[in-house]
Specification:
The protein is an alpha+beta fold. It folds into three domains: 2-115, DNA Polymerase III, subunit A, domain 2 (DNA Polymerase III, Chain A, domain 2), CATH 3.10.150.10; 128-173 and 183-244, DNA Polymerase III, subunit A, domain 2 (DNA Polymerase III, Chain A, domain 2, Roll), CATH 3.10.150.10; 249-380, DNA Polymerase III, Chain A, domain 2 (Roll), CATH 3.10.150.10. The chain is built from eight helices and 28 strands. It has helices at residues 7-20, 71-79, 132-143, 185-190, 200-209, 248-251, 266-276, 327-335; strands at 2-6, 32-38, 41-47, 52-58, 60-63, 65-70, 85-90, 96-101, 104-109, 128-131, 156-162, 166-172, 176-182, 196-199, 214-219, 223-228, 233-238, 260-265, 286-292, 295-301, 307-313, 315-317, 322-326, 341-346, 353-357, 363-367, 370-372, 378-380. The strands form five sheets. The chain has a nine-stranded antiparallel β-sheet with strand order 14-11-12-13-26-25-24-18-22. A hairpin with a 5-residue loop joins strand 27 and strand 28 (378-380). The protein is elongated.
């Protein structure tokens, strides 16, 4: 292989490729970034055996070829070089890449093309166009509710076609649930009826790759494919085959009779919770809400070092007099809303609580309250 290419044309793709490869573990094949020189393009490929990244840049190809370079070393070297033309050459008689830029010369060991395993090609038929920043926003508003551990459905991002021409994206971890509903007719037609599941561990890398531009998206039997609209980069990951829980069971409880509703200022509640959190301990990490018609009093007991009490103006109707929520969970949830006022719909002191806002009409979070055993202890409830 022998190719000349400008550093500024390939460095962004190389950094994205390096984000995927394992740092120390895995076979040399997985720790490599693969460079494929063909026609007038240099293709960049990397994988962790699940996620696959492909990038393509214009280049002067003197001799076509495919070779694997030590990914992180290669990227770190190129990051420290100035902009300008690079010469990348691998001789047939030695497993070494010669990297030259002016009077700078380097050598890196390479892996032979026989180690390379073919990547899945982007399926062209039926691909749809979507906005990358909208997908990123949906992931941001869902991911924090997805379980961090395990390989079951609760560690997955779920998206499925819903009634009335909508799509529902959701995630849950047993104690909280988030759902964002939106319309996209072409994407809805592409989704299988049972929906798709993507493990949370792949979402972070997907978010790093996503930009604000439009993307092409497609689905095969086993993989989700995304590609920049110009085709310069593509990203794919496996889909999981777990059965996602039927979340309509607990969502439906929010519309039953006897629901208690509390309306609060989002910003005032956030400010108060941040102060309440100072008094939380490892054994008592919740905020207690004492509720009356026009007031919500939040308290926390710091046990050995003090206590806190704050009164907030509120609109309240219902029969739940006292309820407790994990303070840090509530703060994280409120950060993902933009509405100035939020409504908490409580099915009971120990039942699911739905959080909604007028300016976040497509967004719902359900949080399970803590079971209050006495004034200073509680236990977690599952959805």
């Amino acid at each position: 292989m022998f190719v000349r290419v400008y550093k500024e044309e390939i460095i962004e793709g190389l950094q994205k490729a390096a984000n995927i490869i394992p740092l120390r573990t895995g076979a040399a094949y997985l720790r490599s970034i693969w460079l494929k020189a063909e026609s007038s393009r240099l293709e960049i490929l990397s994988t962790d055996s699940n996620i696959e990244f492909r990038g393509s840049s214009p280049a002067e190809v003197v001799k076509e070829g495919l070779v694997g370079v030590p990914g992180r070393h290669f990227v770190e070297l190129l990051k420290r070089l100035p902009s300008g033309m690079l010469s990348l050459r691998v001789d047939d008689d030695a497993p070494v890449m010669h990297i030259e830029q002016g009077r700078r010369k380097y050598k890196l060991a390479v892996n032979d093309a026989t180690w390379f395993q073919k990547f899945a090609d982007f399926p062209e038929e039926g691909a749809v166009i979507w906005s990358g920043d909208i997908l990123q926003e949906i992931i941001d508003r869902i991911a924090y509710c997805i379980g961090d551990e395990g390989t079951d459905a609760l560690a997955c991002f779920f998206m499925k076609p819903a009634p009335e021409g909508r799509i529902e994206a959701s995630g849950m971890n047993g104690h909280q649930f988030a759902m964002f509903s939106f319309t996209n007719d072409e994407l809805r037609a592409l989704l299988p009826e049972e929906g798709i599941l993507i493990q949370k561990k792949y979402l972070n890398e997907l978010k790093k790759w996503l930009g604000v531009e439009e993307i092409n998206l497609n689905i095969s039997d086993k993989r989700l494919f995304l590609r920049t609209e110009g085709g310069r980069e593509s990203f794919s990951m496996p889909m999981s085959s777990y059965q996602y829980p039927d979340y309509t069971v607990f969502i439906s409880r929010l519309s039953e009779s006897g629901i208690s509703r509390l309306k609060l200022s989002r910003e005032e509640t956030q400010d108060a919770l941040q102060r309440i959190a100072i008094f939380n301990t490892e054994n008592n990490r919740c905020a207690y809400f004492d509720l009356s018609d026009k007031e919500a009093v939040m308290t926390a007991q710091g046990q050995d070092f003090g206590s806190a009490s704050e009164s907030l103006d509120a609109e309240y109707s219902g029969n739940v007099n006292k309820i407790a929520f994990p303070t840090s969970n509530m703060l994280t949830i409120l950060e993902h809303y933009s509405s100035p006022e939020l409504t908490l719909s409580m099915t009971g002191a120990e039942g699911p609580c739905g959080i909604t806002g007028v300016d976040d009409k497509d967004y719902l979070v359900i949080l399970m309250p803590m079971k209050i055993l006495d004034d200073a202890t509680y236990s977690e409830e599952q959805i």
